[in-house]
Write a structure and sequence with these properties.
Layout: H1 4-12, H2 16-38, H3 41-58, H4 68-86, H5 104-112, H6 115-122, H7 127-138, H8 143-150, H9 154-174
Helix pairs in contact: 1-2, 2-3, 2-4, 3-4, 7-9, 8-9
Length: about 180
């Protein structure tokens, strides 16, 4: 959007029309992201609305550095993650065959356990590990993007993914897989 800066400044002045314009511009791009986290239209709409409330509440913190859309996307993702944690949401539509653990233990698990059993193992990860694992292995973000979304360094993202994979392998071995 050409007049993005002006629109943001108008929103900062509490211009309701500008807020509506901003929402109408970004909501169609952000809604699918919300829906991806919950796979339920009502919950996705709740996340979107909550996230945009956070966007407008924190708009004064945006420094006009980097992508505004990326800044909003980070708020959307954090809101979706928090929603998922609060509601103990499990995305049952995750295709576990896409998970990139890439070793014989995981391949054995895929052949011997149901998707729900594998997801239940993955869901026992600590929040930080789960967030990074999901964003990287399920949603396909790279470590730099994950770092920006979660407010952590790229190295921390890599480390948490590595620890998540080790934890998953141990738990699968504990189930007699591998």
């Amino acid at each position: 959007m050409e007049d993005e800066r002006e629109l943001i400044l108008q929103c900062l002045c509490q211009d309701v029309s500008a807020k509506r314009t901003l929402f109408n511009w970004l909501a169609p791009k952000m809604y699918p992201l919300c829906l991806h986290f919950v796979k339920n239209r009502d919950e996705a709409e709740d996340i979107l609305q909550s996230a945009f409330l956070r966007v407008f509440t924190n708009l004064h913190k945006y420094r006009f550095e980097g992508s505004f859309e990326g800044w909003v996307r980070r708020i959307i993702i954090n809101t979706a993650i928090n929603f998922s944690r609060q509601h103990s949401y499990v995305n049952h539509d995750v295709n576990v065959e896409q998970l990139g653990c890439g070793n014989s233990v995981f391949e054995d698990a895929l052949s011997r356990l149901s998707a729900m059993e594998i997801l239940s193992v993955i869901q026992t990860l600590p929040d930080g590990h789960w967030d990074v694992f999901r964003l990287h292995e399920i949603d396909g973000y790279d470590h730099k993007e994950i770092g920006m979304m979660l407010g952590i360094s790229e190295g921390t993202s890599k480390s948490q993914l590595h620890r998540a994979r080790i934890s998953i392998r141990r738990k699968l071995r504990g189930l007699g897989i591998g």
